[in-house]
Amino acid sequence: MAEIKIPYPQNVLAVVASLRACMAAVVWLDGEAGGRYSIIAADPQEQLVTKHSGTWLHRAQTRTFLGDGDPLALLQTRLDATAPPALTHSSSLPFHGGAIGYFGYELGRRLQGQMPSLGDGPDMAVGLYHWAFVIDHQQQQAWLVGDVPEAAIACLREPLSTNAASWQPNGPVSVSPEFIGYARAFNRVMEYLYAGDCYQINLSRRFTAPFRGDPLGVYADFRQRAGGPFAAYFELPGGPILSGSPERFLQLRDGVVETRPIKGTRARLADPRADAAVAQALVNSAKDQAENTMIVDLLRNDLGRGCVTGSVEVPYLHQLESFATVHHLVSVVTGELSPHMKATDLLRDTLPGGSITGAPKWRAMEIIDELEGGPRGVYCGAMGYIGWDGSMDTNIAIRTLTAHAGYLDYRAGGGIVVDSRCHDEFAETESKAAAFRDLIEHTGNQSCIESA
User: Fold this and answer.
1) Which of 51, 263, 361, 432 is catalytic?
2) Quick one: average pLDDT of 264-279?
3) Which of 152, 207, 329, 445 has its CA 20 to 30 A from that of 417?
């Protein structure tokens, strides 16, 4: 497949702004903050959207109902049908075309034959892209790969946009539940834990705020506050999605699977010495280590379904990783995918990620449904790509906003175990929402996207 080396862009936001001015369904896997690669694509050949009654195929001006069967099986069918005849490529670039999109939290329930989500947004929205703009931030190199349309080349030949992606908050942050409601749900979780239903249950809160203007401008400001190595900006059916995720869900490359669960959080402090002490306290916390280990065991089991027997390992356990507003404990679980398995099979076995459900997973999800009172949607699902070459890389969609009907929607949660304390868990959700609150409360009237 074609690879055209082009100048490294000093301002990736400007590239995205230019492409979306002349092309639809722009997606941006944003690895600039701590990752290595960014992947940008637009104008997919077709899109698959799963919502309520089933999955629809969107192509040009037509829409075809594909049925109410397994959405990932339908996606695999379309990947197989649209793959170019020659998939060989000489470079180590991560993506040369394929599917980019999101797999919502409730898609996991649908895959288990449970009731489809009744939320406003899709359970799955994926575009099939024949080309991409791939940027290597470590080597400061960039390429156009695949069957690049003339429209994309024309966009990139023009001076990059200097227009402002203007936006502004249009009211304060609203939260549900506030402390009293959260405490009530927390106490119910503790009852389930003591009854032996689960070992850990993830409970989240919803933060919303009205806004006016361009979601790309919102993302420009949000990524400065919460940009993680697995960040993304998608304009797909269901509305724009703005993610600053720090967590990898699944990577599949050359037959090797990796997942990097996060469990264990502390808010960062302004004073460097105090901040270092907080980080060390997290590293030494037996409670947080135990929570992390529970999820590692869950993910070992999930990966074991599709990996070669005996290949699942934990090369790193309870490592400290620090981000703009929080410290996290991160572990790494790897395995060798069985030869008969594909990326979509791996997703089916593991979605949603265990780090944002609890353990055992399916009972924890039932309790989450009961206590949160509505679908999570994109939140705690996965965003990323599945290449025609069989590769995959996805995040856990945390630190993630959706923009819809003049509102920004954000969620933050945490795992609760028997020795959790309500005030501490509530404070953890506030720490995880700090970047969103700051975005709304301390943002000026516009974000300028300067020329590269």
Assistant:
1) 263
2) 93
3) 207
Instruction: Match 């990139």 to its residue by tokens.
Output: 156
Residue 445 has pLDDT above 90, yes or no: no
Phi and psi torsions of 287, nearest 5°: -60, -50
Distance from C-alpha of 183 to C-alpha of 252, rounded to nearest angstrom? 39
Q: Cα 178 to the chain's mean position, in Å? A: 25
User: Helix (H) and strand (E) counts for the chain?
Assistant: 12, 26
DSSP letter at 8 equals P
- Please confirm, yes or no, whether 247 is among the known catalytic residues: yes
451 token code pair: 């020329």
Record the pTM. Answer: 0.94
Q: What is the DSSP string of 61-127?
A: TEEEEEESS-HHHHHHHHHHHH--S----SS--S-SSEEEEEE-TTHHHHHTTPPPP-SSS-SEEEE
Please tell me the class of the 3-448 domain. alpha beta
Q: How many C-alpha atoms does 347 have within 13 Å on its Cβ side?
A: 32
Catalytic residue, from 106, 235, 247, 291: name it.
Answer: 247
Query: For residues 255 and 337, is the Cβ–Cβ distance under 8 A?
Result: yes
